Amino acid sequence: MNEKRYRIGKVYITATNPNDAESRIIKAALEGQGGYICVSNMRMVMYAGKNPDYAKLMDESFMNLPDGMPLTWCGKLWGLKDVANTNGPALFKKMLSEGNPGLKHYLLGDTQDILDTIKNAYKESCIVGAEALPFAKVEEFDYQGISEKIKKIGANIVWTAMTAPKQDEFDRIISRIVPNVVFVGVGRAFRMSIGDVKKAPRWAEKMGIGGFFIRRRKWYQTGWWYVKTAFVLLYYMINIIICRFACKI
Length: 249
Known about the structure:
Blueprint (H helix, E strand, L loop, with lengths): L4 E4 L2 E4 L3 H13 L4 E6 L1 H9 L1 H8 L3 E4 L2 H9 L10 H11 L6 E5 L2 H10 L5 E5 L11 H11 L3 E5 L4 H12 L4 E4 L3 H5 L8 H5 L12 H30 L1
Parallel strand pairs: 3-4, 3-8, 5-6, 5-7, 7-8
Antiparallel strand pairs: 1-2
Helix pairs in contact: 2-3
């Protein structure tokens, strides 16, 4: 196991925490290292287990952030003490709030009204551009046109607000056209950053059930998903314990 990442099922998650992830993202953006970052949760880890292309996408990313306590628990099982829940919306809000003068943020996705509200709320941040995207399949976007705007305006970090895995597939494609820019897919972070979508209570996040409070489905559908996911998580954890024990023999 690479000391900078740990395995869950068929994918690797970056061994990081909010402060470490932020510093690594800033460094990559300022130095023009570029790449795309997946904000990974249990849903996406399970999806990767069934989808080889997405598993490959995660393997080629700059970082796969452990978003959610289940991924953090798995990191702890590997013996990685510094791994901590690295929540995408929280990271987005923190990096915009700090107003690092070297970062030039570009926002992609959601509606123009939401983007305008974010720009007004974070005037101290260097948001150099924002573009609402049409509802389209991942292969239908005008990647060349979008890339030219990013290059022309000189952005070095781009936040994309779509659903996963679509946002990660989008970021993989566009990062190949603009290789010196960091792309981060953050889902509902845009709306959470301005209070349009409420985040889950801290106690629920610590228990790994934050989805109950930001769910789009009915409560019993969400509950059944958590039951099924708990069995998969248990399977992953047992495998981690066995792998650690086997490595010591």
